[in-house]
Specification:
Length: 109
């Protein structure tokens, strides 16, 4: 017996895109002026196997993207003086979540 349309529909209902990450926290890495630890929570039913962490300039344009399987990562910024915002999406085989609320990465001097 082959896999029919009803079986495919059932499988697509079992796996849903994850919820948006929340509770995003940004903290400077001690002793490093351009490094930040970014952490977040995920209350998706099965969690997300990977996350996309995006950096945006003040005009809202994405300037850099990182992927991780963890719920935290360290971001090292370049020498630019521009402030950036960070947003995170959870991703699984069903698709990507909505993006978390964006949090500002304020440059330290």
């Amino acid at each position: 017996m082959g896999v029919g349309l009803s079986t495919n529909l059932l499988l697509s209902k079992l796996i849903q895109a994850p919820n948006a990450p929340f509770g995003v926290r940004v903290s400077p890495v001690s002793g490093q002026t351009q490094a930040y630890n970014i952490a977040w929570n995920d209350n998706s039913e099965c969690g997300s196997p990977r996350y996309v962490v995006s950096l945006y300039n003040t005009q809202g344009q994405m300037v850099k993207e990182h992927e991780t399987a963890r719920r935290d990562m360290i971001i090292n910024l370049d020498d630019s003086c521009e402030n950036l915002d960070v947003g995170i999406k959870g991703v699984n085989e069903a698709g990507a979540s909505e993006e978390s609320s964006r949090i500002a990465l304020v440059r330290r001097t």
